């Protein structure tokens, strides 16, 4: 029996949707061999002239890439010798949906069964007689067709009524020998009219434009046409109606006559921006003035120069700025009167010489508003200095690299005003306040500058943030300021200093040492005056300075808020950084004639902390917190906006005086400082506990979300850090013999050994830890193994004992001083030490640096060696890398809020890995 021969080819198709409107199509023969893309094109598009038989189809090595409308176009009819089936069951379903959609795509009533809304286009599957899957393919084909016409999907809602009435634009064919077009004509040069003309014109066989005579413009189209074109009247009217249905700019009640309608500048702009692209996308002819093609290249220039009458003293800050305005267009000068008339007429298209230009009317109105505010004397030198003048007039000083080479608005200052502004901004050359004779100290030049600046800020009613590095002498600068203020006859009330408890004694001693003429009262402890007793004491004893702590000021906040202090100073002002705490709110409610913040770390972690400090020193400067969040926190912390960082720096710069030890202009002559990590491995016991705790914590984290998860992360990180120090801290075991304890932790062994060697060499060191248990353990091991009695300063230690220990250490009475990081990390002067040991790492580099600066500060004459102990392979090593990144950000006064409890899942997984 002979085998039957057949010409029919059987191809198995794979159809995969790769995007909203794109499909990948592959084919195999029955034997499994793949069909080349070029061969597949010839089968799919064998009879499709519209796509040039598939010549423009995009292909890859083994597949076709078809837009949805191309795919439907390829299935109008089957190839006579090729049978298509699906490669898999899923492909069979997809192929069936494509065939159904292709049938629906060809139906004239397709668009009548469509609806469009904000969510896209939808088809009535019952009336169109297609499946839901086929309707989805049709949706994809519509989006593909829109993309080909350069039409945005959101425009479909506007277009659909047009399509339902006239069909897809541009697809209807016309056989008449003339074309119908729209023509836009600019106002006549000789006329005073500012109106444009939009009209329908006929383009004849030779390309010439024809419009009816003026006397016939209001006649029906058939009567207005010439005799030889009257047979085409119905087609011309239909074409005009189709074009007019696109117009956003006009909604004319046009019936059967030729369009001829005047347009204002604003209407022309809408026509050019919204209507013209649609008309051009669908091939409708639109005739425009030739100059419109290059109109976007034209700009009006505005130049203004600011000046004042005098700038010889601080009172010059209140002088009103005077502005000199000038305008030009394409090199031609425009006087102010003409400019104002352009704005009043709401003009957008302006003729200058033989050229036309487009000017944004909103921008023109904005410039006019700025001119009126400036001419009304709204801005002073003070506003210019503190960036309270709109950026259009006075852009950021360090933002020039972002300007256009030829900006629309140029701002300049007269040379004398610019010099004065630079003096104020750089805080150099300020009026000398005269160093008080009662000051028992010689101020370094930079300290005198700081003192002059504090007095200047007071005299001009500006808050101040003195943010010098730790150890540069903020205390003596403030004491000089207090002497100046309390020597004035108009000063009657006391000044208030709020500081951490750990430095309360230091303030007492420094005031007594540098300014014995000032009467100082300590508002602290259970026997302090309250309520009426406090008021009576202030009125009768009339102290110059009242010293208190943050805790006391928080407890007595309402009482203290009833007194207006001559000045209020916050030492270590970062203590009010968390604005929602009771302490921060109480401090920010205090009233003083002048508010000053002293801090070595104006920002530790978040910009919200900066807002809290500025809300204290100069209330209202940044508005409420919600406004500050919208203007700065979101664009900087979320989007890392460099421009907003520069803008924020420009805003805080006048209020912030910051000098660092590395500033060569200060001529500090400080000794060098070396910082290095001391790496320690985990013992076998620690490693086993570490891995077990990680596994347990990861399991718990999977069951938690949100706030609970953040709380567990913080608790877990602290437990792991204690484990890195010593397993006994983690297990909460009591101390055993020192030899046994050091054998269980390489870190403990290293710290004890290193500090003992330092002491043996006749040097002194300070050891910082954030855990009381670690401090006690270090004391125990140093005493038992090396016979060294190392005091441990904690937050619970009485003030008198703390002050005594600091004095004894400075006198060299003992070589090793252990300090709690929170209690001893700020305010203390421990320059007797030339080694600083950080037993465990803090989350924040600024806090660590503050602690280091207990030794590395003015008065230090020795080389300072800083040792930071890091346990290898643990969170300590990972956090050390994060700290390096945070330290780089801190130098820029901008720190990320992505930290610890807010770490991403990937970062958290990395932190919780071991090894």
TrEMBL record:
<dbReference type="InterPro" id="IPR001650">
    <property type="entry name" value="Helicase_C-like"/>
</dbReference>
<feature type="domain" description="Helicase C-terminal">
    <location>
        <begin position="750"/>
        <end position="904"/>
    </location>
</feature>
<dbReference type="Pfam" id="PF00271">
    <property type="entry name" value="Helicase_C"/>
</dbReference>
<dbReference type="InterPro" id="IPR038718">
    <property type="entry name" value="SNF2-like_sf"/>
</dbReference>
<dbReference type="GO" id="GO:0016787">
    <property type="term" value="F:hydrolase activity"/>
</dbReference>
<feature type="domain" description="Helicase ATP-binding">
    <location>
        <begin position="455"/>
        <end position="620"/>
    </location>
</feature>
<keyword id="KW-0378">Hydrolase</keyword>
<dbReference type="InterPro" id="IPR022138">
    <property type="entry name" value="DUF3670"/>
</dbReference>
<protein>
    <submittedName>
        <fullName>N-formylmethionyl-tRNA deformylase</fullName>
    </submittedName>
</protein>
<dbReference type="InterPro" id="IPR027417">
    <property type="entry name" value="P-loop_NTPase"/>
</dbReference>
<dbReference type="InterPro" id="IPR014001">
    <property type="entry name" value="Helicase_ATP-bd"/>
</dbReference>
<dbReference type="InterPro" id="IPR049730">
    <property type="entry name" value="SNF2/RAD54-like_C"/>
</dbReference>
<dbReference type="Pfam" id="PF12419">
    <property type="entry name" value="DUF3670"/>
</dbReference>
<dbReference type="Pfam" id="PF00176">
    <property type="entry name" value="SNF2-rel_dom"/>
</dbReference>
<dbReference type="InterPro" id="IPR000330">
    <property type="entry name" value="SNF2_N"/>
</dbReference>
<dbReference type="GO" id="GO:0005524">
    <property type="term" value="F:ATP binding"/>
</dbReference>
